[in-house]
Amino acid sequence: MAIVFAWLKFKHPWLIISCLLVLGSFQFNQLGDLQQNQPLLIYPDEIAVEDNFMRGLAHQNGVKVRVYGQADQRTQRMLKKGAVCLPTWEGEISPIAPPRNRGQFDYQRYSLGQNIKTQVKLSNAQILAVNYPWPHRLKFNLQQYLQKLPNYLRFFASELLLAKADDELAVKDNYRQLGVVHLLSLSGLHVSLYCLLISAVGYRLHFTEEEVTGVCVCWLAAGIFLSGWQPGFVRAGISYGLKKISRFRRWTLPACDLLGLTLCLHLLLQPRLFLNVGAQLSYLLTWGLQLVEQLPKWQRGICLNLLIAPVLLANFYGLNFLTCLFNLMIVPYFNYWVMPLTFLGLLPFLMPWCEWLLAGSEALLAELAKTQLGWLAFGQINWWQTALLTGLTVYWLLWQLPVKHKYWRWPWLLYVLCFLNLHFPVNGQVTFIDVGQGDSILLTTPGRRKAYLIDTGGRLNFGKRKKRSAQVLQTTLPYLKAQGIAKLDGVFLSHQDADHIGDLRELLKAIPVDHMYFGAGLDKNPAFRRKLVGLHSSTQLHPLLAGDHLQLSKELQMQVLWPRKPGPGSNEDSLCLLAKFPHRTWLFTGDLDQAHERVLANSGVAADYLKLGHHGSKTASDPQFLKTVHPRRVFISAGVNNRYGHPHPETIKTLQQLGLSADNTAECGMISWTYSAFQQDKFSYQLKEPTS
């Protein structure tokens, strides 16, 4: 039926053929498997080397894989000169893993969108230099040149030419906060500007329309390759080509049909296109522009932002109500200031001036973003809410219902219900966030939600490797945003170790915290005091000792069991907390050692659930202590394949002898316990349920 309908509507066989090809594209684009006995080819523009460690893409008979591993000096020299082949290699082959926490960036989905499903941790390889195609050579040379530019020029030039830049300047965060991050992505706007510039130059040189079109097509093809098949750029490039073909062939192709044909051809090239959020937004906005082109400009802005709002909430957990206003201000600024300065800055004699001007203007934009004007931390809506809200918006746009029409009420009501569900939840929770080798535990209450964090996690840096970005920015904060949590009522700090509070400073920079609780004496520790310099003016500090009681809400009371005297914040001074929820109690002991656990056991402490001390180390989890606490289940927060061997075999043996089951974040990813007045407590696991 679909084929017959398409034939009657379009009357063009090549349209039908395109549709059939798209229908079969997935069959012919199945992802192949990596073969251990076949060579790998690595292009220098697809690999990054830093601190003797390489990470990037490799190719094997049309199959793309992600590779990473150590890179010696010889390998680095060869990669700087050109492509390399690994005729024989050894390494650990594994599928790309899903996110270990809810709200965390889904690297697996992102990779599948690029037709990649496998990764290899190289351990040994024979390396040979080989010739490689000129497009990769061109891209590599461009990358090398851009890396030499000053900060802002490097960022914008990399985004506008390669659709890829580092985030050290936090420029993307500023644009995202204002709701205009799409300006940084290569899109139809850039295709139009590039083609307009080429056409203006071409006509001045007396080129024919066909010649100008040929130059534009070559430029767009190069841009598509350099940008790594950026969806918005590919869509606009295909659309430009189809428009020119229909013009030269004198075919009448309505705008909506042109977009549909563009989508068919795009899916033929990239069957997993819509795993990319940028592709979803690009096609939604383009279609929306066609549907609202008759409306006044201010109404168009409102309708388009309403159309993409569900996708933004599903993927970025928030939106800006003033996006329309910021678009009116920042789009001209970007088109007539940032882009010209960026391309002029590629000229060496203009580079310092352009960098200075960009740095000044972006500093003003950063100050505007810091105000968070118009920003709403909504939270993450699920897939069916996304589909329903998008469908309702499309329905309005198709039928152009007046604002006073009764059906306009439904989407607003659904948005309100989603917001209330996220910000006034019926469930409370205890969630072990998988921060690797460290602790970070979120406690929330139902109804008028209170949110508390026990420890922030943090990485230990070994050797001379460059300090990596804070773990809290990749794990804890995305989860808080997905929950719609824009402020923490309190943070409890167990002790001074970096794997417990190493990311405290980054957390305080990123989110307001009302209260900070810690064992008495930790505030005298110089290392701890440095973390708070200039950051805790609005945060109340509370030193705690055993015997203190905190009524945090009607549903949550916290009893302090340790330390009994002030200390420097060592393992022996760990803040030990007994959290009392309705019908259940939880015990958190930080890194308290066995000797002090036995002291607690003498006081007769008991709990329904226990977070094992020191990540399951043999220095904690004293058998007598475990017998006294007598928990229903215990939990271990440890990193996958951590260098300490946590949890230790001695601890596992103790648990088995006592008949205790343990859930480990290394195996299960994020672990959540939820409770409410309407259901029994329930456990959920991000990756898999525990085997024990």
Descriptive report:
The structure is a single chain. This protein is α/β, with parallel strands linked by helices. Helix content is 45%, strand content 17%. Strands 16-15-14-13-12-11-24-25 form an eight-stranded mixed β-sheet, with no helix packed on it. Strands 17-18-19-20-21-22-23 form a seven-stranded mixed β-sheet. Strand 22 (633-636), helix 25 and strand 23 form a beta-alpha-beta unit. Helix 14 packs antiparallel against helix 15. The longest helix has 22 residues, at 323-344. It is globular and about 95 Å long. The two termini are 53 Å apart. The model is unreliable at 1-10 (pLDDT under 50).
Reported for the largest beta sheet, the result is:
8 strands, mixed
Distance between the termini: 53 Å
Q: What would you call the shape?
A: globular
Structural class: alpha/beta
Strand proportion: 15-25%
The average pLDDT value, as a whole number, equals 86
Main-sheet strand order equals: 16-15-14-13-12-11-24-25
Tally the helices: what do you get? 26
The poorly predicted ranges are 1-10
Helix content: 40-55%
Total number of strands: 25
Whole-number radius of gyration? Answer: 28 Å
